[in-house]
Amino acid sequence: MVSGMAETATTRRSRITPEREAELYEAVLDLLREVGYDSLTMDAVATRTRSSKATLYRQWGGKAELVARAIRHHKPVDLAAVDTGTLRGDFRALTHRQDDCQMEQDSALMRVLGTAAHTNPELLAALREWLIEPELAEMRRVVQRAVDRGEVRPDNPAIDYVLHMIIGAFVARTLIDEAPPTQAFVASYIDAVVIPALSA
């Protein structure tokens, strides 16, 4: 069913060039940062991008999918493409893909979407389809390589919680320390929490 939905979505978007699609996604993220999810409207997106609202609905179906696809485009899910030969090296390489400024912006977006998803089932479903499930699958591939290399026991219960731990680092940094996540913080968290959990 998911593949069918993806095929339908691809068909809907076929008339928009990749450049135009990227421009639309960037505008959506800008609006999301400015007004939040609940106040973001398709009218506002249409005005900001000089598009017709009918075109937006035809291509993306609604606000939830448009936002989820914008996040996916901004943060491509290609974790498994990083292969340094060690689990710590893979996580370090992933950490260094974003500078501190980008991490702060992404953390703010996560808070906005996390809050909105609690009261918006359509948004939650779109985020699960376009972002959460693909990231879980990619993270499993990263960890499976470590299992195959003998770095992680195949029965280690922490395997199922790697993404939870990493997302938790972003959320906890802001709530507990009143500071945005940084490369240094995430790297130290991985060394102190994630790697030991997986190496146990």
From TrEMBL:
Instruction: Write the record's keywords in alphabetical order, separated by commas.
Output: DNA-binding, Transcription, Transcription regulation
Enumerate the Gene3D superfamilies for this protein: Homeodomain-like, Tetracycline Repressor, domain 2
Query: The HTH tetR-type domain covers which part of the protein?
Result: 18-78
Q: Which residues bind DNA?
A: 41-60
Q: Which residues cross the membrane?
A: none
Q: Which Pfam families match?
A: TetR_C_11, TetR_N
Which superkingdom is the protein from? Bacteria
InterPro entries membership: Homeodomain-like_sf, HTH-type_TetR-like_transc_reg, HTH_TetR, Tet_transcr_reg_TetR-rel_C_sf, TetR_C
PANTHER family in the record, alphabetically?
HTH-TYPE TRANSCRIPTIONAL REGULATOR RUTR, TETR-FAMILY TRANSCRIPTIONAL REGULATOR
Protein name as annotated: AcrR family transcriptional regulator
* Species, as recorded: Streptomyces umbrinus
